[in-house]
Amino acid sequence: MAEIDTGKPHSARFWNYFVGGKDNYEVDRQIGDEIKEIFPGLVDVALTSRHFLGRAVRSLVAEQGIRQFLDIGTGLPTADNTHEVAQRAAPESRIVYVDNDPLVLTHARALLVSTPEGATDYLDANLYEPDAVLAGAARTLDFDRPVGLMLLNVLGHVADYEEARALVSRFVDALPSGSYLVISDCTATSEGMIAASKAYNASGAVPYYVRSVEEVAGYFDGLEFLDPGFVQVTQWRPEQGDAVGSGVSVDAYAGVARKP
To answer: pLDDT tens digits for 73-86?
Structure first.
């Protein structure tokens, strides 16, 4: 397993710091505090994106009968990870997490523990290896049955937009009819978010490129959105008790769409 590089910020640890976690290093906190000065709204983006994950998974389990999830770009475990949300509603749910950061791997193996009725697995792989991811996931998931594909705040790491779209298509093409694509991502919808992205990319971390709303929505081409469609993360089926209210405008959009 690769060694943990504590000399440069890492997106999973940086995001962990923003949502109040403790699995981060001084270098992550330094760039986090710098970006808070530039654009405090990124903290709201991190929190609201996390809550969107829970709402999306609950909706797919309870309303659409989904019992399998492939979560690519897992990030560091916090509260209400995908398998916890899914198995709380349907203990037989099966979840495969995919990430390639050694710190994430260590925590995932320790913390992402399934119910006895269901299953969780962790793949040390990445978005750029769809064939390897799909082959590994097939050990736990049945690709003859619908799957919820989770790509949350990960596609911005792909520098070329057309490559990002091609990767999404490769994964979606491998899923059966009745599967769902779940995406949330930061968007270039304010000067603050654009400035925050530039500061993060200048820190030495693996760059993250914020895109237009139209570009992020393009990942869903050919799929059928669930209501309310592709909207700000705070507007996707908000619930009482969310850390940031549904009336707050954030520079992040999300959608859940069905493969016909």
So the answer is: 877 666 688 999 99
